[in-house]
Write a structure and sequence with these properties.
Elements lengths: L6 E2 L4 E4 L3 E6 L6 H12 L9 E6 L2 E6 L3 H7 L4 H15 L6
Length: 101
Protein backbone atom coordinates (compact mmCIF):
# COMPACT_ATOMS: atom_id res chain seq x y z
CA UNK A 1 0.00 0.00 0.00
CA UNK A 2 1.27 3.47 -0.91
CA UNK A 3 2.15 5.86 1.91
CA UNK A 4 -0.34 8.77 2.21
CA UNK A 5 1.02 12.02 0.74
CA UNK A 6 0.83 15.29 2.65
CA UNK A 7 -0.09 18.35 0.56
CA UNK A 8 1.90 21.46 1.56
CA UNK A 9 -0.17 24.60 2.05
CA UNK A 10 0.95 28.03 3.30
CA UNK A 11 1.50 27.25 6.98
CA UNK A 12 0.46 23.62 7.24
CA UNK A 13 0.33 20.23 5.56
CA UNK A 14 -2.88 18.30 4.84
CA UNK A 15 -3.89 14.71 4.17
CA UNK A 16 -7.20 14.73 2.27
CA UNK A 17 -9.65 11.88 2.85
CA UNK A 18 -13.10 11.36 1.33
CA UNK A 19 -15.07 12.82 4.24
CA UNK A 20 -12.29 14.13 6.49
CA UNK A 21 -8.80 15.56 6.47
CA UNK A 22 -5.81 15.75 8.78
CA UNK A 23 -3.92 19.00 9.16
CA UNK A 24 -0.41 19.41 10.59
CA UNK A 25 1.15 22.75 11.54
CA UNK A 26 4.76 22.59 12.73
CA UNK A 27 4.50 25.82 14.73
CA UNK A 28 1.25 27.70 15.25
CA UNK A 29 3.16 30.62 16.78
CA UNK A 30 5.18 31.48 13.66
CA UNK A 31 2.08 32.63 11.83
CA UNK A 32 1.42 36.17 13.08
CA UNK A 33 -2.32 35.65 13.21
CA UNK A 34 -1.90 32.32 15.01
CA UNK A 35 0.18 33.91 17.76
CA UNK A 36 -2.34 36.73 18.14
CA UNK A 37 -5.24 34.29 18.39
CA UNK A 38 -3.38 32.30 21.05
CA UNK A 39 -2.75 35.45 23.08
CA UNK A 40 -6.36 36.55 22.75
CA UNK A 41 -7.64 33.13 23.75
CA UNK A 42 -5.36 33.02 26.78
CA UNK A 43 -6.53 36.47 27.83
CA UNK A 44 -10.01 34.95 27.87
CA UNK A 45 -8.79 31.96 29.91
CA UNK A 46 -8.48 29.37 27.11
CA UNK A 47 -5.07 27.98 28.21
CA UNK A 48 -3.70 27.61 24.66
CA UNK A 49 -0.12 26.83 23.58
CA UNK A 50 1.74 27.60 20.39
CA UNK A 51 3.86 24.92 18.76
CA UNK A 52 3.25 21.83 16.64
CA UNK A 53 -0.33 20.62 16.32
CA UNK A 54 -2.10 17.88 14.41
CA UNK A 55 -5.84 18.16 13.78
CA UNK A 56 -8.40 15.62 12.60
CA UNK A 57 -11.15 17.57 10.81
CA UNK A 58 -14.55 16.08 9.96
CA UNK A 59 -18.23 17.05 9.96
CA UNK A 60 -17.34 20.63 10.97
CA UNK A 61 -15.38 19.32 13.96
CA UNK A 62 -11.69 19.83 14.79
CA UNK A 63 -10.03 17.27 17.10
CA UNK A 64 -6.67 18.93 17.79
CA UNK A 65 -3.64 17.36 19.45
CA UNK A 66 -0.65 19.40 20.61
CA UNK A 67 2.38 17.84 18.94
CA UNK A 68 3.34 15.95 15.81
CA UNK A 69 1.15 12.85 15.32
CA UNK A 70 1.58 12.56 11.54
CA UNK A 71 3.17 9.10 11.68
CA UNK A 72 0.25 7.57 13.60
CA UNK A 73 -2.33 9.31 11.44
CA UNK A 74 -0.52 8.12 8.27
CA UNK A 75 -0.83 4.53 9.53
CA UNK A 76 -4.54 4.94 10.36
CA UNK A 77 -5.46 7.06 7.32
CA UNK A 78 -5.93 4.20 4.79
CA UNK A 79 -8.48 2.58 7.15
CA UNK A 80 -10.60 5.73 7.18
CA UNK A 81 -12.13 8.20 9.60
CA UNK A 82 -12.93 5.77 12.42
CA UNK A 83 -9.31 4.58 12.61
CA UNK A 84 -8.15 8.23 12.70
CA UNK A 85 -10.62 9.00 15.50
CA UNK A 86 -8.94 6.20 17.49
CA UNK A 87 -5.58 7.98 17.14
CA UNK A 88 -7.12 11.12 18.62
CA UNK A 89 -8.77 9.19 21.46
CA UNK A 90 -5.49 7.42 22.27
CA UNK A 91 -3.71 10.75 22.89
CA UNK A 92 -6.61 12.97 23.95
CA UNK A 93 -6.04 12.82 27.71
CA UNK A 94 -2.44 14.02 27.51
CA UNK A 95 -2.25 16.08 24.30
CA UNK A 96 -5.74 17.49 23.61
CA UNK A 97 -5.60 21.15 22.59
CA UNK A 98 -8.22 23.58 23.80
CA UNK A 99 -8.71 24.46 20.10
CA UNK A 100 -10.65 21.19 19.87
CA UNK A 101 -14.31 21.82 19.07
Amino acid sequence: MEKPTWKKLTSNEVLEGDDFHISYNKDTGTDHLGGVLTQLGNTLGANLKDGAETALCYEGRFDVLEGDFRKEYEEAFPQGLEACKEVFKKHEAEHRSNWTT
